[in-house]
Amino acid sequence: MTTQNLLVELFVEELPPKALKKLGEAFAQQIYASLSDQWLISMPGTIAQDSDQADPPAMDVFASPRRLGVLIRSVLLKAPDTQKLVKLMPVTVGLDAAGQATPALIKKLQALGADVSDPVAAVAALRRAPDGKVGALFYDSLATGATLDAGLQKALEEAIAKLPIPKVMSYQLETDCELPGWSSVHFVRPAHGLVALRGSTVVPVKVLGLKAGNSTQGHRFEAKVSPVVIADADSYAATLEQDGAVIAGFEQRRFAIVQQLAQAAERLGPSYQVLMDEALLDEVTGLVERPNVLVCEFDAQFLDVPQECLILTMKANQKYFPLLDAAGKLTNQFLVVSNISPLDASAVIGGNERVVRPRLADAKFFFDQDRKKTLASRVEGLSKVVYHNKLGTQGERTERVQSIASAIARQLADAGVADAFDGNADNAAMLAKADLLTDMVGEFPELQGIMGGYYARHDGLREDIAFAIEDHYKPRFAGDELPRNTTGLVVALADKLETLVGMFGIGNVPTGDKDPYALRRHALGVIRMLVEKDLPLDLNGLLTSAFEEPRWGTAFKAGTDLGAAAPSIYQKFDAARPLADFIFDRLAGSLREQGYSAQEVDAVLALQPQRLGDIPKRLAAVRAFAALPEAPALAAANKRISNILKKVPDVDPHVSEVLLTEPAELALFAAMQSLAPLANAQFEEGDYTASLQTLAALRAPVDAFFDGVMVNVTDVENAEELRLNRQGLLKSLHSAMNRVADLARLAA
User: What average pLDDT does the chain have?
Assistant: First the structure.
């Protein structure tokens, strides 16, 4: 059965550039999946053993500002017919006592198109097979394969219906309908053309009021011909590029932009580098059909404005690519990706330079105006900005962050961290949100914190306070850098804890995939700071002090979703328990993403270590322990001990040597007396790996104990004393071996 490649293109008005890549992939994948489900695609072969060349991809995806398309390889004109075994009914229902067909069976066969003119022959052609506890009748039928015409029609309709379109347009058809101007269709943008070619033959399908043909439109201004006629499916991309001046493939167009950007920067000199932005690259790729990169510049006086403002203005408003020097500083030159390639580009360059000037002038005006007021003078105005209807204003929030920051700084100072409680954290926390009231942040919310740092320096504040104000939102996303100094860490921790505690306090907790207040991100930020900076802070202590912050007032009691739990919100750590569990759950997911096994993570976090900075060392120790030959036996023994102790929860770990009568328990006690002090000393020094390796020497006496000693002894004179003493021995062993992690969780 011969196959040929199939091309489908839907020609439309300009598509949303930010969504173009996703739309193109969804359109192509849906058509391919539908045709594949209908057996209209012949599966490509495997790589030949004597060849290094792989088969071409099953499809090529095309997406430009004015088209969605796909080239699918090895498409059949008609799917093969297939045999189907259809279950009819139980034998007792389909046949009477004489073995003749019942009316119910005849009716069922007629519905399936079977020949029932000779009922005896029809019954003889059926299969009998067990179906559960009874026998059933089955009918062999031949299902006619779908034709490409019908299959592609179905695939197109499904693809259009399932496109991820947030907003659909309605518009009226003007041709090819009974009442032009009255028949409406719905799509992301008005569609004006449809191409469907199998090889060089048009597939007669119709969608959105359009009939398929073999011609499309090229570039609005630079196409050589109109329309562009596609000779066959395989020549689509080359013909469109040559005659239509359009690079149809999204990835090919994006690659061309990246290359041209790099070449333009290289022509300017080796010290220039393009500020590449993946999201901006995708958006610009969705704006042009044939890219042409041009070099422009703006007045150097604007470089007095913080470069973050200028970069954001150029990227967000104008879709330009800034150029940096070798030191990473912004230059007054930038790159534009034009959609036209005139012989003289001066008019295009001049137009872009004129357009960007007022944008940069606005940024300079905002910056100059903002510096006329100090950050401190803006703090009072935060009391007029609502933060949350149950948690008060930004001013009240600032006071809570300030108080929590002071508590954290005090805890760090008590733990010996130099300069932690010097007043800088309190001052930085007070000023951290003040830039929300500036014109620059009002125009560009993405710059909050960053502008606060600039204005703090302008106000003459210390550099560490400016850094803390700038960094207190960090980490903003996965992989983002952490605050640069202790003051910044304190304020960032306080800010995230205030958000977590406040939202948990009023019952706004994440559910499923919904997390409108980004609490998962805030929890991961707290985790990263505590772990990566190895801060000597107790998680329970942090949460308890945050929940006990008196400036919450009656906010928590106003929560409508807490019910009877509301009064307990004020009861120290009892209130923080759900939040602590949430943080440990986020931590477990993060550790698994870093490559730790579920068993390793479970073993360490089962103890819920309060100093999160210790967790990487504990995990490393568990991994090293698990590699020892003694590990499986000790893990199994720990599991056995845990099960024994669960039944007697109030065991006294004290062991009386007088009551140790069996050689195996005497040997275990002696080994523990010898090894436990060393292991405990290593644990206290933070050498968790050495501590577990020391305890690994207990394998032999532990195995001997369980082989030769009955713990729950009952048939001797002082059975109860012996039983309690042996349980105490196991309790002390369990405590010694599970300080680093719950080793029972490592048992298979």
Answer: 90
Q: What is the pLDDT of residues 105-158, one digit of tens each?
A: 889 888 888 888 888 888 888 888 888 888 899 888 777 889 999 999 999 999
Which residue type does 91 have? V
pLDDT tens-digit readout, 395-449: 999 999 999 999 999 999 988 887 777 789 999 999 999 999 999 999 999 999 9
Residue 196 amino acid letter: A
* CB proximity list for 511: less than 8 A, separation 6 or greater: none
Asked if 462 and 424 count as a contact pair (C-beta separation under 8 A), the reply is yes
Rounded distance between C-alpha atoms, residue 364 and residue 610, angstroms: 48
DSSP 506-544: TT---BTTB-TT-HHHHHHHHHHHHHHTT----HHHHHH
In this structure, the dihedral spanned by the alpha carbons of residues 508, 513, 516 and 520, taken in order and rounded to 10 degrees, is 80
Length of the chain: 748
Answer whether 0.90 is exceeded by the pTM.
no
What is the DSSP secondary structure assignment for residue 477, as one 8-state letter? S
**Rounded Cα–Cα distance for residues 65 and 530 (Å):** 46
Radius of gyration of the chain (CA): 36
- Strand 228-229, strand 201-202: pairing: unpaired
What one-character-per-residue DSSP string does 83-131 give?
A: EEEEEEEEHHHHB-TTSPBPHHHHHHHHHTT---SSHHHHHHTSEEEEE
Residue 621: CB atoms within 10 A of its CB come to 24
232 φ/ψ angles, rounded to the nearest 5 degrees: -155, 170
Instruction: Give me the phi and psi of 335, to 5 degrees please.
Output: -115, 140
Pairing of strands 210-211, 206-207: antiparallel
Q: Is the pLDDT of residue 45 over 50?
A: no
